[in-house]
Amino acid sequence: MKLPWPSKFFLLSQKAKKIYTRDSLTANDLTLQLTKKVSFLGNPFMDKFFSRNKVLKKSEFSIGLFPGSRFPEILDNFILILEVLEALSDLRYFQKIQFNFAIVNALSSSKIEEIFQKRGWLNLEKIKDKYLLKFQYKFLEVNVYWNNFDNILLESRCCISMAGTAAEQAIGLGKPVIQIEGKGPQFTKTFAEAQRRLLGKYVFCAINYKDKNDQINQTIKLIIKVIYLIQLNKKFMISCNENAKKRLGENKACFKMVDDMNIVIKND
């Protein structure tokens, strides 16, 4: 990892009593780079999910859809995910699956409705809900939520993602991620590749594609593969959970860090 100036100067300073990272790979890398102990005690941004983790109903299989949060990039990401869903809408199997978009306020409900309408989706909501819209395309139904990311992530069995933090938190909860490379400016091929290296082999992504149609078709194959593994391979989910602990740590990261800081302060 290349450290931007003047990060290395401050981290090497004797006044920096302790350094904590948000993942184990970075801790190992910085320990070597700085020849100074760097600690990973878990990722604080995971704590709120561990405390609220829900028991899913076995009859439900939901997939979280995360197009990111930056405007206007979110528009392109949102449409690309829609194109994937439209391409798999002929498969009756997906009629049984719940697809949930997590949308930020920067993308208004009127804009969402406009996009769906132009693409030939049917609006299923007779009474508008401030935080929810429902649309149908052939056999496939999609829910669009605002201000509901945490619940969507917790209830999802896997995720389709073009986001940064959302994918990390999904992997941290032991949920596999189907990643789609975008045009950016944030979520690019380079960013997506770096994310896969950080989060490990349970981020699945189509990478050697000829064009957009090939990318979409390969992504659909990965979605089907991941659903198959979740439903029929018990070892797969065990491995996902082991990877989660290795990459992003376990619960109570905040408490562990505070306790460790208190020891540093007392011994200073």
Describe the protein.
The chain has a domain at 64-246: Rossmann fold, CATH 3.40.50. The chain is 46% helix and 13% strand. It contains 11 helices and 8 strands. It has helices at 7-12, 24-34, 47-50, 73-88, 109-118, 149-155, 165-172, 189-199, 212-232, 234-248, 253-267; strands at 62-66, 98-103, 122-123, 132-137, 140-146, 158-161, 177-179, 203-205. An 8-stranded mixed β-sheet has the order 3-4-5-2-1-6-7-8, sandwiched between helices. 28% of the residues are buried. The model has no long low-confidence stretch (mean pLDDT 90).
Give a quick precis of the structure.
The chain is of the alpha/beta class and 268 residues long. The protein is built from 11 helices and 8 strands.
Q: H/E order of the elements?
A: HHHEHEHEEEHEHEHEHHH
The whole-angstrom Rg is: 20 Å
What class do helices, strands and sheet pairing give? alpha/beta
- Distance N terminus to C terminus? 30 Å
Quaternary state reads: single chain
Number of strands: 8
Binned, the helix content reads: 40-55%
Q: Which architecture of the domain at 64-246 would the CATH scheme give at its second level?
A: 3-Layer(aba) Sandwich
Helix count, per DSSP? 11
Form type: elongated
CATH class designation of the domain at 64-246: Alpha Beta
In round numbers, the mean pLDDT is 90
> What is the strand arrangement across the widest sheet?
3-4-5-2-1-6-7-8
Strand portion: 5-15%
Major sheet size, sense and barrel closure: 8 strands, mixed
Look up the CATH topology of the domain at 64-246. Answer: Rossmann fold
Uncertain regions spanning at least 5 consecutive residues: none
